[in-house]
From TrEMBL:
UniProt keyword annotations, A-Z: Coiled coil, Kinase, Membrane, Transferase, Transmembrane, Transmembrane helix, Two-component regulatory system
GO molecular function, one term: kinase activity
Annotated transmembrane regions: 12-30, 42-60, 72-89, 95-112, 117-133, 139-162
Record protein name field: Sensor histidine kinase
Organism: Streptomyces ramulosus
Phylogenetic placement of the source organism: Bacteria, Bacillati, Actinomycetota, Actinomycetes, Kitasatosporales
CDD domains, per database record: HATPase_UhpB-NarQ-NarX-like
Length: 408
């Protein structure tokens, strides 16, 4: 409905639906053979009727297939109304049915703003011409006038339904396109977060294994084994992300963060609150886990830091609702002035916004860089929010200059 025919079968179906209503012209056609009018009048009537039908089909079919410009609509409608008036005036009341076809064409091809006045105008002309025939005055209002008005407005309603259907179809296509774009963005964020972290760790371990050879082959072999483990886990994570079933966990990401920071020879001061086994809503834990992964990846790749601090604290939002704040700070070189968010931070900001959270970035205390991810916790989960940040002991990894390639 509301679409131009795309196959011959559809074209034939639409054409038959329009042509079947031509049966109502049986009265004028029969009148051409039974009327006592002179033969010349009947021949002119047949020519006029043929011209009327040709104009009617040309207007309706062109509107159905290609659409008709307003400049072409009004002359054709005026010609239809004129032919209906002249033929009825000279050939008798049976020809009043032409006004019904004119009303139908008006309702089909004109926009609502014009059709709502044109249909009543056609009906008024019909009633005026019908007064010429005393033999039908008793019933022609019900037989011709009301059908012309009712069917005309019915066609206006049908055209409105067709336009609404087209708009809904276009809206559905737009929703599908936006959904596809959202899915592509989700995949881009997931793959960036997954592969960025894993590939950074593989690069660091490869450089470390290269420095250990040939003096320390055993240690180099251990690093190569770690590379194999990380690459296999990255492959599993990518497959899970593609299927949409991956749910990052804080405990898993914390373990990966420790391994990456140790490899980069960055000391870790991790909040004990991150290691507590407490229930968190899936959306909250996923958002915090992604934030931890992205923040630690940036520390390893860009900071050139000697120490990294991880904190998880509870706070109250502006509306009084509980929230969790994950803070990752380092003592590295910090971000360059005027530097915009990269793909990682931009994707993380979008991911947090989906769960109602926000991302805060800025300089650390004294030096370095600080990233804070704030995620609201639903009211029924408020008891899971930790009371405050822990001051747990720093990770045992020694502080040392960062590995080559880890500097910003």
């Amino acid at each position: 409905m509301g679409q131009a025919p795309r196959t011959w079968r559809q074209a034939v179906s639409k054409a038959l639906w329009i042509c079947v209503w031509m049966l109502y012209l049986a009265g004028p056609v029969a009148d051409l053979f039974t009327s006592p009018a002179p033969p010349t009048t009947r021949v002119l009537g047949a020519v006029g009727l043929a011209g009327y039908v040709v104009l009617y089909f040309a207007l309706v079919f062109r509107h159905m297939w290609r659409g008709v410009t307003p400049r072409a609509i009004y002359p054709v409608l005026a010609a239809l109304l004129t032919l209906a008036t002249v033929l009825t005036w000279h050939l008798g009341p049976n020809w009043l049915v032409l006004f019904i076809f004119t009303s139908v064409a008006t309702g089909v091809v004109l926009p609502w703003e014009h059709a709502r006045w044109s249909v009543p105008f056609v009906t008024v002309v019909l009633l005026t011409v019908g007064l010429r025939f005393p033999e039908v005055r008793a019933y022609y209002l019900l037989a011709y006038g009301l059908p012309a008005l009712g069917i005309g407005y019915t066609m206006i309603g049908v055209q409105y339904l067709i336009r609404t259907t087209k708009e809904l179809r276009a809206a559905r296509e737009e929703v599908a396109r936006l959904a596809a774009n959202d899915e592509r963005l989700r995949m881009a964020r997931d793959l960036h977060d997954l592969l960025g972290h894993s590939l950074s760790l593989i690069t660091l371990k490869s450089e470390l294994a290269g420095r250990m050879l040939p003096a320390r082959p055993a240690d180099a072999a251990a690093q190569v084994a770690d590379i194999e483990r990380v690459s296999r886990q990255a492959l599993v994570d990518v497959r899970e992300a593609v299927t949409g079933y991956r749910r990052p966990r804080l405990a898993v990401e914390l373990a990966g963060a420790r391994a990456a920071l140790r490899t980069a020879r960055i000391a870790v001061d991790a909040d004990p609150a991150l290691e507590r086994d407490r229930p968190l809503p899936e959306a909250v834990e996923s958002a915090l886990a992604w934030a931890l992964r992205e923040a630690v990846t940036n520390v390893v790749r860009h900071s050139g830091a000697r120490r990294c601090t991880l904190r998880l604290t509870g706070e109250t939002g502006p509306d009084g609702s509980p929230a969790l704040r994950l803070t990752v700070a380092d003592d590295g070189v910090g971000a360059a002035r005027g530097t915009a968010d990269g793909n990682g931070l931009g994707g993380l900001r979008e991911r947090l916004a989906l769960s109602g959270g926000r991302l805060e970035t800025g300089p650390g205390e004294g030096r370095g860089f600080r990233l804070a991810a704030v995620v609201p916790v639903p009211a029924e989960e408020g008891e899971a929010v930790p009371d405050g940040g822990g001051d747990g002991p720093a990770d045992a990894a020694p502080a040392a200059p960062s590995a080559p390639g880890a500097a910003r």
